[in-house]
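Listing S7. Sequence submitted for prediction.
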Amino acid sequence: MAVRRRQLLLGFAGAGGLVLAGCGREPSTPRTPAKIHFEPAPAPQPVSARAPGTVAVTDGTLTSVEWLDETGRPLPGAPAADQKSWVSAEPLGYGHTYTVKAVAKGETGDITATANYTTPRPDRLVDVSLRSANQVELSENDTYGVGFVLVAHFTEAVDRRAAESALKVVTAPAVAGAWYWLDDRNAHWRPELYHAPGTRITVTADLFGIPLGDAAFGLRDQRVSVTIGAAHVAIADDDTKMIDVFDNGNLVRSMPTSMGMGGSAVIGGRQLSFWTRPGIYTVLDSSDPVIMDSASYGLPTNASLGYRTTIHHAVRISHDGIYVHELAQSMWAQGNTNVSHGCLNISPADATWFFDFVVPGDVVEVRNTGGEPLDIWQNGDWSVPWPEWQQGRAQP
């Protein structure tokens, strides 16, 4: 019995000792080391020139960041207020070799991480000029007519898909539009129908750092916004030989006109047309005066139909020299007979009014004339049917 009692007491004592030992020591919590992350992710190939440099830390705080280029110049940047990240103040840029060192403090102490980067070295840098159809660069808050066409002109041939993906057009109110590539350097943008008055159009060209094909890269980013003004539409009908001018849908002036006499002639081995081509033109610009010289399109001034003369109040509507302009000498024909080389002749009074009324982008529709339809290179963007226009996009 004495032995039994002693064993029990020892058992309790042992158990009590274990319990007391357990209560006297807190369970230990593992300490987590800090981790440093770089963006872009380090890679053997060049990283994007337009990307910023970023350092982030988890389970700790950044103590220091050194992001140095090949010359030892530090890439400007600043840490976040919580010391959890650091972002450069400028993109990585072209033609650099960077060495990066970051130090972070965590529960287990300081850690250090390093990375190395290179960025592309372009053979050529390509720029884009954002223009209207008159080939004049857009300026912020310019006003254009409802027939405004956006033109992107690249300084050299580009990969169409890459370039188009970097071009963004936003309208307010929103409307769907599409790019139409004339060639590898020129793309035009418009919606299906004329713009609504008051529309705000913002175009962004985010080209910097973008590969554009054949070792060429984009030079810079651009952004510009323009506004659409009142709906000015002039309809020149050869059946009536009148130009009816509408302002926001209201007829405000009817002007007798004399258009192209028609026919063609081969001069110097080149066939010249004397029709006013049917189609939808837009106002490109206006000049007072302008010197008109038939030699500019291949008709010598000393030929039987040649001319060189000074014209006042001339509104240009095509890239090959079609104007709406005053000509007192043809007033006898205006409204009844076509006698011009292709321009739309109107009286001095009507020409003065029209000159003051229009802005670039206003619409001039020419109907019921002979000759070939207006071509896009002549300023015939709106003459291209919408399904055909959509086919002109860079294919996805």
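Caption to Listing S7: primary sequence and predicted structure tokens for the chain studied. Helices lie at 2-23, 160-165, 348-357, 386-390. Residues 1-23 have pLDDT under 50 and may be disordered.
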